[in-house]
Amino acid sequence: MTDSTVAVPAEKTGRYAQLPRLAGAGYIPLALFARVPLAMLTIGMLTLVTARSGSYAIGGFAAGAVGIGAAVGAPASGYLADRMGQKRILLATALINAVLVGAAVVLSYATAAFTPAATALVLAVALVAGASSPQVGPLSRVRWMALSRRLPREQRGPLVDTALSMEGTVDEITFVLGPALVGLLASLVAPWLPLTLAAAATLVLVTLFAIHPTQAASARRVTSHGSPGFVAGERVSWFKVAIPVAGMLCMGTFFGSSQTALTAFTGVHGSVDQAGLMYAILGLSSAVTALSVAYWPARFTQPWRWVLVGALMTVASIGLLLPGSLGGMVVALLLVGLPVGPTMVTVFSIGGMVAPPQWMGTVMTMLASGIVAGTALGSSVAGSIAQAQGSGPAFLVPIAASAVLLVLGVLSTVLLRRR
To answer: Which CATH superfamily does the domain covering 238-415 fall into?
Structure first.
């Protein structure tokens, strides 16, 4: 692979057709399936530990431990990838994570009774499994940004918009596909199967992702100390970085609280088993509109896009308070999902704007961690409200998260107006 500038004529191919020409035909499906095991990990741990312990509380703690571990471990993985190169870190985390997930399965079945000591051991393994989870999604975004530097300057912006739109859609697909696979495999065979297959898939698919030729693009410059990923250079304004990270924290809060409030809603108007299917409706409309961002005009700058989609999310979220039936909620979820995909794409794009190349992996994984931490926060807050007051008041949490996201969008237009 070469660092020379390569023109990809947009007029001869569609925008999305340019991506496989730049990264290789097999890269996009590989990057998609390599992140499915991570999407299976939290719900898989919840399902396994709940089934083996007979306690929803212990299962919830195990799922929470995975989330906390991922929120802490993801930025650490990004930091090390920036300095040592993606290949080394992804290979190491693939092996470590596969072993730990397998250990969690063995421990769950080897534990006859979930005593406090046995429970603590299982939760500790779940925590470290979450912390070691390979960060395929964020590091894939770093690769696209690195690959874009091979293009003429006028083509870079549209290419990054297109790639991040595609990445947002891939994330939405895996968010739906992962839990669906866990539910299907656990119900048809046994609770141990989803995590066992996730461990095997991590070992194989993440390894293939790690050694894919695109990893060289993000590690092509070497410092005098010989570190292939780190590039000494532009200083980073961590305050500017904190704005999109806080935005992703709000996005995670929106996701977690919406899912929890929706579970309470379906418990009243249908069955709690329908909550996952209902939530997938939001993901469907979100994935479709995420693809549209590639065609938004370049003069409509990223900060102002954030303001627009943040406002639309806030208004649409208020609509979650209106339905009194499952049919009405389907319509509300379709509408509220429309601005969600473009919001994620926009915030990731702004994260790429404020992050110097030598910190790109760190910032991208911080953004992903914001979603994880926010999901845990939103789930806990909305769960407490739903338990005490019902689903209606619980839907106030995603509305509040959307409103804060809008405020952060306005702040980003002020801080980034010169960029």
So the answer is: MFS general substrate transporter like domains (1.20.1250.20)
